[in-house]
Specification:
Two copies of one chain form a homodimer. Helices cover 29% and strands 22% of the residues of chain A. Chain A is of the alpha/beta class and 278 residues long. Chain A is globular. Chain B binds a DNA duplex (19 and 19 nucleotides) through residues 29, 31-32, 35-36, 74, 76-80, 108-119, 121-122, 125, 159-161, 196-201, 205-208.
DNA sequence: AGCTCTTATGAATCATTGA
DNA sequence: GTCAATGATTCATAAGAGC
């Protein structure tokens, strides 16, 4: 039996009540600089690192030694330039003791529209992977993908509604009907995740599609483990954790977000069937 | 009439003979840390920034005020961690006066194989875009891509040799037969470039596929402009520049690479027809 | 031509061995 | 101890053979 709980407050404070090493995986998409002004006061880019570090110190303490910390983030462009606070954050986290193990790329197929004279639409975000040790828990087989030439052969007789499309060969295989492929030869994915942003039918800004935390939860935790999202927002990470048989803990400064996350991660919520049939 | 020339020597020295502002675009893939030991002696990661900065100072001087500098690079993983010298290089280049305008992602479809306990195969590289001013030359229309639904319809009756394949919808459209699409509705690409590494039939390591410099040359220069590759290697950038009607200048420390680049960029080389029919 | 099959090979990374 | 060299692992392509 797994549990989900949502805690209200600043994760830097709330986590102080947690036992050291009590969390197996942290997956989060923190408030970006100058965003979510209502809840976090809109952290200025220049102060982002100093705002982040005391919180990541608690992440380090509560994370198990073989655990992983996955940080989904992307620097904004302002006044014609990319900000450097994410680069500085990576350097600062290493000084705090984290190992910068890998940088995964989330390639957003349908990214935000727009047109500017000096840049194209931004179609990718960083998923920074930090660990405490060089050896950590990694279930590579849990995210394997059908091999390339199968997709080739299959493509020639595809109908328009075949959901597979570009998911398979190109990338890490977030095709929804991946279960059909289990008898095919499988290959390991790469460090580029290729999936669409979720078209949110709820009335809040969808941070990331559920497939994103799902992938990392399958990869870096076992069933029965505990997954933490210290900036839980609308609760996508908790919902993914619950559906994969992991215990979920979410924290958020906003009472409104906490309520929403709790509703979505509650197994007997009124909209369970609707969600499962997605 | 455009020209191509290849100069032998260290770009930091050779460029001192160039007039300020005489180059419109710099596209290069420098030797990565600890790679290409035979020619560059394998720059150690710890000294990469100090090795790079005097050379990029010359890049800054010879680049026109509305020009661009595109740097293709990727940090290596060693002892379980990603190195940070590329992050430090970005910060150092900004201190040198460059604007870090954008970071494009080159998504390599066929990346190097391998299996390790702590990471997947690396399928992407950075294409860092630096400029001297906030307003610079950018021909967005030159790299437009056919829109999704047409590519969708087309895909259903594709033969294996139809070059389009996954290029179109997913990404920035490096399909070779883009000329066929001119009457189609077009869209602007994103900052994720999606193309395969070139399997080189020459006896040297192919740095990047020709489509990569082609894309940036079309985007950030006009016909008749001058394109510089200060680490020209096998000469892919020069070949792309010549075929797009730009003047090309290549520099390399290795006499062997210089000869190769010169042969490939020479319009009346013996293998011209073979190259054009590719 | 067009298709299928085989083979070679990469801007790689890690564990192991030996000096 | 540290450091350099070697082997194991892996898959999307191109190129070539055969039909």
């Amino acid at each position: 039996m797994t549990t989900s709980q949502v805690l209200h407050g600043d994760c830097g404070e709330v986590l102080k009540t947690f036992a050291a090493g009590s969390v197996n995986l942290i997956v989060t998409s923190p408030p970006y600089a100058d965003r979510r002004k209502s809840t976090y006061g809109g952290i200025a880019p220049e102060h982002y690192v100093e705002w982040f570090l005391p919180r990541s110190a608690e992440f380090f303490r509560v994370l198990a030694d073989d655990g992983s910390f996955v940080l989904n983030i992307k620097e904004k462009a302002e006044n014609g330039e990319r900000h450097t606070y994410v680069l500085e954050l990576i350097l600062a986290l290493r000084r705090q003791g984290w190992l910068w193990t890998e940088e995964y790329i989330w390639h957003k197929r349908n990214c935000y529209p727009g047109k500017w004279p000096n840049r194209f639409r931004d179609a990718w975000e960083r998923c920074l992977h930090f660990t405490k040790q060089r050896r950590f828990k990694m279930n590579q087989e849990a995210v394997m993908v059908p091999m390339g030439d199968w997709a080739d052969a299959r493509l020639k007789r595809l109908g328009k509604n075949d959901v597979v499309r570009f998911d398979s060969q190109v990338s890490s295989g977030f095709g929804k009907n991946i279960a059909n492929w289990l008898d095919r030869p499988m290959a390991y994915p790469t460090n580029v995740l290729h999936l669409a942003t979720e078209c949110s039918n709820k009335n809040h800004s969808a941070a990331f599609p559920q497939a994103l935390p799902e992938w990392f939860i399958k990869l870096f935790s076992d069933p029965g483990d505990t997954v933490l999202d210290p900036f839980v927002g609308s609760g996508t990470t908790l919902k993914a954790a619950r559906e994969l048989g992991r215990n979920g803990i979410g924290i958020d400064l906003s009472r409104e977000y906490c309520d929403m996350a709790e509703a979505r991660s509650e197994p007997f919520a009124y909209n369970l069937e609707a969600e499962l049939s997605e």
